[in-house]
Amino acid sequence: MKVLLVWELGGQLGHFGTLLPIADALAADGHEVAFALRDLSHAHPLIGERYPYFQAPLRIDAKQAARRYDSFADILLHAGFDHPDTLSGLVSAWRALYAQLQPDWVIYDHAPVALFAACGLPFKKTCVSTGFSIPPGGEAFPRFRHWQPDTESDQAHRRHSHQLAMANGNLAAQRLGMPALEYLPEIFGQAAQKLTTLPPLDHYPSRAAGEYIGPIGGLGQGKSFGKADHERWIFCYLWARHRGSLDLLKALADVPDFKTLAVVPDLPGHLPAQQHYKNLTITRQPIDLNTLSRWAELIVCNANHGTLALASSQGVPSANSPVTLEQTMLAKRIEAANAGITLARGATPSDVARQIADAISQQTGKAGARRIQATHQTSVFKSQDALLAALL
Question: I need a surface site. Which of 88, 115, 196, 228 has the fewest CB within 10 A?
Fold first, then answer.
C-alpha cells in the first residue's frame, strides 16, 4: 500500500515526531511511504534517504494582515480560505500531487487545505494530531477561548469567518469539480480521526466523543538524569526565543530549597552547552523524561503538549507559561483537571518564584496529575505493532 504522510501548518519539529514513527511502522510492515512537508529544512537530517519527500503546497503571502483567531475557521482563512483564487491554486496543487503519487492512504497532521483538496478522492484518509488541529464536528467549529464570556462581537466574528470560509471553499470546489460542503467541519468528517492526546489534555472540552490513541513519537528521549537523595528538583523546558523565558529562568534560580534543571534547545550556540546560575542548571541537551517522576516534583514549561503529556501521565504537576493561543487552551485544560497552574503573565521574577514555591508546598495540581497517571499512563508509549493497530 502506498501511504503519503502530510504536514501543512504549524511550526516546531513535533510534527516530525508524530509522523516519523508512523512512517517507520508502516515501512516495517511492508508499505511504501512518502512525505509532503511544510518545512524541508530539517527533512534530510531527520529522514535522510529513507523515504522520498516533497514540498507541501503552501500559501506564501508575507503581506497577510494580523488576524483574529476565535475558531478554526480563522485558521482556515489564514491558510488560504480567505480568497477563492488562493484556495483554488492550493487545492489544484494538492490534487496534482495526489494524482502524481497515487496514494492508497493519506495521513494528515495539521493539514486542513490538503484534506479539503482530497474531498471526493477515493483513497483512505486519516487525521493524526492533538486535539487542537482536529476540531470537533457539527455545523460550525467551537470557539477557542471557551473560558471567557462569549460576547456578541465574538459570535459575530465567528459567523463571519465561518461564512467566508464556507463561501470560498464551495466556490473553489465548484471550479474544480469537487463536492460542495454543507458545513465547514465536514472537511474533517471525511477522514478517520485519531487524537494523539489524552482526554484531559484535549484542547476542546466540548468534544462529545473522540478516538484517543494517545501521544506518539520519540517523546522524552535523551540523557539520563539522577539526583542525590536529599535533593529536591524542578524540571523546566523552555525556548529562549519566547517572550518571558529569561525572566522565568531567573525566577526558577530563586525558588528556595529547590534546584532546577532547565532544557533550552535554542540556547545560543556561542554559549557553553551547560551553564549554572544559583540553583539553576541550563542545558541545550535533551533529557530522558521517561523517569521524570523519580526526581522532579514539578515541571515548568510553555504548555507544550508533548511535555505535558509525559509529565501528567507520570503524575507530575505542571506550572505553565503559555505563549501561543494553542498553549493557553491546553494550560486551561490542565487547570480544569487540577493537574497544574498557569503562571501569572507579566509578574516579576520574585513573584513567579513565590507562585512556584507555593504550588509545590501546597501540592497544587498533584492530585489531578495522579488521576491522569492512574487512567492514562499506558496510553503514552507504543510499539510499532500497537501504533499500526491504533491507526488501522
Answer: 228
